[in-house]
Every structure is written in C-alpha cells, then in structure tokens.
Automatic annotation (TrEMBL):
PANTHER family: ASPARTATE-GLUTAMATE RACEMASE FAMILY, GLUTAMATE RACEMASE. This is Aspartate racemase. It comes from Saccharopolyspora antimicrobica. Signal peptide: none annotated. Keywords: Isomerase.
Length: 230
C-alpha cells in the first residue's frame, strides 16, 4: 500500500472532500478500519489565488513543486493535487518528484471514453475553462472534444465558485443558473458535462443535471486509490 501525498488548500473545502472520499473509498475497498496512509500539505489559498489572478503560472508551479518535494520527503509514494485548476502547472510538479503523479484529466477522460462520449462540456474556474491545459490533454491524449460556456456564462460559473462555493455558500439561484448553462452546452452538442472544479459538487448533482455528469474529483480519487492499492 502506497502512502498518498496530498497537495491541498486550494480550497480547504476541496481538500476536505478529497480526504473524505479517499478514506471512504479505502474503507469500502478494504473493509473494517483500513485506511490508506496519507501525508497532507495544505497551502495558503490566498497566495495561490493571487498568482492565478496575476497570471504568474511559473511562480505558482515552483511554489507547488516545492510543496510536492516536501510531501515526498515526508514519506509520500504518490502525489495527488487536490484541485483542477492548478493542473495548469502539473508538468512542473511532476518533474520535481520521483514518485508517480496522478493527473486528474487522465482519470476523468478514461471514464468518459469508457462511457462512449466524444464531446463533453466543461465547467470550472475561468482558468480551467479558458487555458488550454485541460482541453488540450483531453483532445491530444484521449480524443475527446471539450466545449466551454460562452461569455458571460464563463464569468458566472467562475464567480459562483470563488464568491460562494469556496466560502461554503450554496445558493439555490446559482444551482438554477448552472442547470441553464448545462442546457446550453447540450444545445451545442455536449453529450455529458465534466465538473472540473471540486467545489461544484457542493452545488450540483446528477439529479439536477439534464446531461450525465462526470465528477472529476471522485474519478480522480478512484484513480488515486487504484494506484495506492496496486
């Protein structure tokens, strides 16, 4: 059993969800009181958010690479980055460590492909929707086309995450707006939707959506558990 190294704090709500799902998953697979050994490094989200806003991705990459090295030194044998957006700097993190790095896009794309979907909508932060790291990896490595909301809906989706969900606010009006956005993605040919931000699962679930949902967080956790227990 490998020790899982969690890079978290982006936001802490996201990290708490990862920790819960990892432990529920390990108990479900192993039974009894069995859990996977875990090392958690939780960063100050305010620092990371400032780098995001400034477009300082190189700085952010080195910041998280340093955190990953510390996690490995603490005994981690597998690294999981507990956020979608910061996979923008996944290559920098991966190069900084000598242990496997579990990429969230690969975990999500494999399940989408297995379900037979070839065109999906993506909801997440502005950075996840607008930067190419998510869409390019889906397209180039997995043959899946990704569509994102048009403006002003990208701003709406982003603002709900940063102004509400990362502050533990869940609003019915925002849920209704997300459902509307999903319907518009369906009109543009999306066969399913990726929830590309951990906090979105606090707001919307399968019972709310007119399209099948792929929760990147849960799929990432399942992939991490596969690696940890293999």
């Amino acid at each position: 059993m490998r020790t899982i190294g969690m890079l978290g704090g982006m936001s802490w709500e996201s990290s708490a969800e990862y920790y819960r799902l990892i432990n529920e998953g390990s108990r479900g697979r192993l039974g009894g009181h069995r859990t996977v050994p875990t090392v958690l490094f939780s960063v100050d989200f305010a620092e990371v958010a400032a780098m995001q806003e400034a477009g300082a991705w190189g700085q952010a990459g080195e910041f998280l690479a340093d955190a990953a090295r510390r996690v490995q030194q603490a005994g981690a044998e597998l690294i999981v980055l507990c956020t979608n957006t910061m996979h923008q700097v996944a290559d920098t993190i991966e190069k900084a460590v000598d242990v496997p790095f579990a990429h969230i896009v690969d975990a999500t794309a494999q399940r989408i492909a297995a379900a037979g979907h070839r065109k999906v909508g993506l909801l997440g932060t502005r950075y996840t929707m607008e930067l190419d790291f998510y869409r390019a990896r889906m397209r180039d490595l997995h043959g899946i086309e990704v569509v994102v909301p048009a403006e002003p809906d990208r701003s709406l989706v982003h603002d709900v995450i940063y102004r509400e969900l990362t502050r533990n606010r869940v609003e019915d009006g925002s849920r209704a707006q997300y459902v509307r956005v999903i319907r518009e993605l369906a009109d543009r040919g999306a066969e399913a939707v990726v929830l590309g931000c951990t906090e979105i699962t606090l707001l919307i679930g399968p019972e709310d959506s007119p399209l099948p949902l792929f929760d990147s967080t849960r799929l990432h956790v399942e992939h991490v558990l596969d690696l940890a227990l293999s």
